[in-house]
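I would love for you to help me understand the pair of lines that follows before we discuss the fold together.
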Amino acid sequence: MNPRNRVLTTLKHEEPDRIPIDIGATPNTAFHVLVYRDVRRALNLPEKPIRIFDFGQQLAEIEKELLEYFNVDVISINRTLEPCAPYPHSWGYRTRDGTIIRVLDSEWKMWSRRDGVIVEIPRYIDVVEAEDGYVAYIGGKIVGKMPRDGYYFWGLDRYGEYTPLAEARNVDDVKKIDWESYRVSNDYVETLRKRAEYLYRNTEYALIFTGAGSLHEWGQGLRGWSRWLSDLRVRRPLAEAVLDHMMDVLKYNVDNYVSVLKDYVHVIGFSDDFGTEEGPQISVQTFRDFYKHRYEELFSIVKRRSKMYIYLHSCGSIQPLIREFIDVGVDILNPVQISAKGMDPVELKKRFGEQVVFWGGGADTQHVLPFAEPEEVVEHVKKLIEILAPGGGYVYASVHNIQPPTPPQNIIAMYKTAYKYGQYPIKT
């Protein structure tokens, strides 16, 4: 099978020739830049600047030679390294004060991190070293901070500096932000179409578009993390008003995405982190009250008008919500955080394996991958493949992004094991 057929077969819950593999097709299945540098060194590849495709998480764009080395089967339509489409994106970046700054994603510049790693970052981002770390600016507006001993540029909402609806007290206050500016532009959507069509016609990879939207996370970003959870419990009219405005935007955006991507893209990705390490952030009943009917409305746009599979990223302990996700039309679940409470892979496969595809769960990136010996990683991966792969419905990826200081030997052992022992029929 070629990569595209392999992925499509497994998404239909059938067994392809081997398990499809994903590295870096999403902002939840990638390598931190320091990890990527170490993997390149372990493979004796020459030193070179590393391009970052997710500035906040400092995630490395996976180069073609490593896509091929690790037998990767799926790529994002928004890649900027080969294989990629020759169509730059221009869009409006929203700053914390609501200013919209036009940016272009085809222009790059070098930045030398304090740890000595030279990376390529978008030209429109300026990084300034401060006493307590780094500060990032776009158009002179601060957009993120990285602590001196940190690995990521956290968004300003983490510091309580950018929550546009934090002071909203009633339904009328919700109307005061410019909701129209959250709608995707025709230019942006047309560029997506051209990128998707180019990669569909010129590669054999399965194609994914992530970033289609969120509800819970967007509410937290607008109101503040804990404030939004309180809204869902004690300020229902306010929460409903925020969600209604979000839905107006999301339906418009998703409708546009589906219109241009339906003939070329195989997977469309949404993201809403509902879990903590110990359980869901909200009850099943709260999900049903606020989110279930809205997801059904949103996902029905995809289901009615395309054959794209719906991918939902939701971290943590979310087992009580998985049945709800399936009911609203989710086809694929990521990252399958097997170390969280109630996320035993045996139980997940037994209860949900015939109805939802597990995209991830291939190695515990918190407790095993960074600390085990390579031979222990091999056994860990083999066991998870034996559990999750039979019958199809499984795309191999680690549990979320791989973070420093994970040893490169463990990463290489993980993906080599996935390829070697992921051949169907799976030997148990």
